Amino acid sequence: MALTKWTVDPMHSQVEFKVRHLMITNVTGTFQHFDGHIETDGEDFTKGKVVFTIKVDSIDTANDQRDGHLKGDDFFSAEKYPEIKFVSTGFSHKGGDNYELAGNLTIRDQTKPVTLIAEYGGVAQDFYGNTKAGFTVSGKINRKDFGLVWSGVTETGSVVVSDEVKINADIQFTKG
After folding, report:
1. Torsion, Cα of 61, 140, 82, 87 (10° steps)
2. 62 and 92 in contact (C-beta within 8 Å)?
3. pTM of the complete model
4. Which CATH architecture has domain 3-175?
5. E strand spans, 9-160
6. d(CA 15, CA 30)
């Protein structure tokens, strides 16, 4: 089979995260700048190799002060570690539209294996004749596994920021 390359369409994609604050609500954020591709054997995504990068400095939680804190040394240290990177090691079909996406996630120069859930949205043609494929990818990581170790406790003993971070990305790829 021929190698097929699918590239991220940033106009029709988003990367979001959620983390518990004071263990009573979620704070949601997005990354505005990211890039990636899948190389497949023909159109078989289970034989695909995914590479995805995120620009840390593009973090947006709708609060400039919080964004600055997240970009600083307490969390991402964006100046020193400007990218988050995911490289797949496996993409297996679990039935229906459900897949499991395994790979190595690198944050702050610390690489750990992660397993994410990928829901295949299908393939369609856009108005310009481009072939598009869509996936919703979700999972959870422990931020401390990647050196995001800042922690705080209120006077009453409440944890300020949860260790668990939920990831959700809706990604549209363009073939070719």
Report:
1. -140
2. no
3. 0.94
4. Beta Barrel (2.40)
5. 14-21, 25-31, 34-41, 44-55, 59-60, 83-95, 98-107, 110-125, 131-142
6. 6
